Amino acid sequence: MIAFNKYYNRFNILSISLVTISLLLLIFKGLNFGIDFKGGTLIELRSNDQKITTSSLRDNLSQMNLGDVSVKNFGNKTDFLIKFENNSNKNVIEEIKLSLDKSFGNNFSFRRVEKVGPKVSSELLKSGVIAISVALTLMLIYIWIRFEWQFSLGAILALFHDVIVTLGLFSLLGLEINLSIVAAVLTIVGYSMNDTVVIYDRVRENLRKYSDIKIFELTNTSINETLSRTLITSITTLLALLSIFFFGGEILKGFSLAMIFGVIFGTYSSIYIANPILVRLNVSQKTVLREESKN
Amino acid sequence: MLYFSKFRIIFIISISLLFIFIASSNILKFSNSLLNKKINLGLDLQGGSYLLLEIDNTPVIEQKLQNFTISLRNYFKDKDIRINNIKLDNQKILFSTDQKNKQFILETFTDEESELNPYYPRFKSHQLEIFEENNFFIVNYSRQGLIELKTSSQDQALEIVRRRIDEIGTNEPNILKRGNDRILVELPGLDDPMRIKSLLGKTANLTFRFVTNNAEDSFGAEKLEYEDESEEAMVSKRIILSGENLLDAQPRMDSETNETVVTFTLDRVGAKRFGKATSTGIGKQLAIVLDGKIISAPVIRDTIASGSGQISGGFTFQSATDLALLLRSGALPAPLNIIEERTVGPDLGQDSINAGLIALIIGFFLVILFIFVKYKIFGLITNLALILNLLFLVGILTIFEATLTLPGIAGIILTVGMAVDANVLIFERIKEELKSERNNLIAFDSGYTKSRTAILDANITTLLAAIILFFMGSGPIKGFSLTLGIGIFTTLFSVYFIARLLTALYVSKNKEKGNLI
User: Which residues of B touch A191 (CB under 8 A)?
Assistant: First the structure.
């Protein structure tokens, strides 16, 4: 048996500081929204001339009056990602094509073009926020029906911790938030819940079985009993995600990275947030039995 | 939990075989149409263009209100009521009248039998709303009236968009309504949407009008630019012919001038009007106006009674072809704006498919290896269930001919990673049971029973997330939620039927063995 409960306090301080730092980052540094949510144009280019660099591309594009243009390599040296904000020019993509062909010869293929208008981007942002809020609310309702309030509170706090810290990390690293990150966050919500619920199920079972063991010990027993499952599932999920991250192509990198963070935080929080809460709220056999006699 | 009737075993085996068969129809070709189904690839995988168009209804509303002011004036004139200071401002009609007529006008507008202002009994609303402010009446579209107007202009626009795209002949375009003022166009396999974009960006409102040269006659005329922005001319507002009178239009090479032109044929009404105009207007310039710009304004030399003619305007063959196409397919009721565009080239699509498949194979292999090392014989059972799970998932996607996107592939890989969770929960529980229970059968049985709530809880939470994503998400994200959601059901099936059946068979053969798991 590993004495997880010895570190409850220390890790709680860590969690609180992580959430605080994340919130500060989210408030002051903010998130790096992609064109899905900010509007603008994205072009993925592939050149068949090794000599073309991001700076030569940037120089060329900066003469085109596109506003703030960002040019980055995308995955390898001959792939480029160009981004700029919305402008009123409807034929901007055709003009870029002409200009690049003129300056660099016909050396580019346009692999992907995405253009999101201001109206659509604000709608996407709104529906993303609604989706995450609805998901959190539904989880809340589910957990509230399913468990006693002390457990619900613990599960929800663990959930918020995972979402906030994952987003905080994205803010810290300046990684782009796009539609697929919303999907990742929602999946993290599901995963985090899943992990917490499995441990809670065991805590409840043990609470019914043993009336003489204090919750501080009991949570530790429950964590240990479910530990191998927690680890094995986290490992297989991470194996799948790492494989998407390394082999699934550039487009899925952000999504898989968010999920990898989420799974790690989710595993951590199901042990070190969900359980200490039960200890702090002084959950005992009575909590579980009282609820049952009501039903 | 470990007992399976013969009937059940046969059921499980036949279901599995059926799905293997269906899933394989993606690779093999079956002549049977019931089985010859395939998963569709999303635009991000097969390449193609996604365009979201928004109808700008402002000109339609203004035009309709403009027309309404005339019928309004005439209607009350017949009733001997004078309407004063009538004007159109910001999609509202303003007018005033004498104090004594006010009540009558209000009643006319709010009467359910009103001829002037149609009433929609289903929505309990009139087309137009009227209210009084500072001795002025203000009339504008009601909420329902606006919806009615938008829906009808969307229907028309959809038809025109479909005709234009069909004329170009892309394969299997998808043209759908979104809301009441948007149209979604999906064009698989199209990697350069430039031509379609420029064709959809034109309203194609064609009119034939006389050029008026004397400046005094400016009342019924407006100043219009030529298409090449070189000159301007005063053009009468009176429309002689419009695009509606056109039966056909084709690009042609004029053999005399060696110039590309667009020839057109008029319907009977149009031919009559055209003949009359060209006979009375010899020597005058007839402007051909498209979307508020003059294409050309030839001088009429002869009466044209045949009902056909040609438009010249310095076209290239491509631009003449496009103009003819636009004229054939008709004018849009209102301008369209492209508010979202996503285009993926076919080579990127293929790269994404390859990357997705490689990630799937590697992820699958790693998970299988890990589970085998961890659980040995039961690892094999789990892995077999996992393989079938994947085939079920592919099979269901095939039956519904669902659209697979790149995030959808990610959803499948994630399902592989999370699918083993249920079996892990069961096996870990069995291990615990075996510590206190000697009898293998009882231990396995209670392992299955006791882990059930945890498994259900775990899957319901993920399912909730997937359902929300499906209804809130757009395009590719929908694909992710679809595979993730279906994956939950196939996982539960493969765990509780296939893995459990195999476990039951193995355990009943090795009842007496110690350290089974």
Answer: 418, 462
What CATH superfamily is the domain A4-34+120-294? Multidrug efflux transporter AcrB transmembrane domain (1.20.1640.10)
Question: How many contacts (CB atoms, under 8 Å) link A and B?
Answer: 205
- Test B342 with A109 for CB contact under 8 angstroms: no
ipTM: 0.91
CATH number at residue B17: 1.20.1640.10
How far apart are the CA of B122 and the nearest CA of chain A, in angstroms? Answer: 30
Tell me whether residues B359 and A247 touch, CB distance under 8 A. Answer: yes
Subunit contact B356:A110, Cβ cutoff 8 A: no
What total number of domains does chain B contain? 3
Residue of B nearest to A228 (CA): B428
CATH of residue B266: 3.30.1360.200
Q: Mark which of B260, B291, B324 sits at the end of a domain.
A: B324
Give the closest residue to B300 by CA, choosing from B290, B313, B287: B287
Residue-wise pLDDT for A171-208, tens only, equals: 999 999 998 898 898 888 888 888 898 999 999 999 99
- pTM comes to 0.86
- Integer CA distances (angstroms), A236 to B295, B364, B366, in order: 66, 9, 8
What 3 state SS string does chain A have? Answer: CCCHHHHHHHHHHHHHHHHHHHHHHHHHHCCEECHHHHCEEEEEEEECCCCCCHHHHHHHHHCCCCCCEEEEEECEEEEEEEEECCCCCCCHHHHHHHHHHHHHCCCEEEEEEEEECHHHHHHHHHHHHHHHHHHHHHHHHHHHHHCCHHHHHHHHHHHHHHHHHHHHHHHHHCCEECHHHHHHHHHHHHHHHHHHHHHHHHHHHHHHHCCCCCHHHHHHHHHHHHHHHHHHHHHHHHHHHHHHHHHCCHHHHHHHHHHHHHHHHHHHHHHHCHHHHHHHCCCCHHHHHHHHHHC
Chain A nearest C-alpha distance from B384 (Å): 16
d(CA A256, CA A180): 9
pLDDT, one tens digit per residue, over B127-178 is 999 988 888 899 999 999 999 999 999 999 999 999 999 888 777 899 999 9
Residues of A in contact with B374 (CB under 8 A): 232
Domain range for B450 is 6-47+346-509
Interface test with A, best of B45, B340, B430, B491 (most A CBs within 10 A): B340
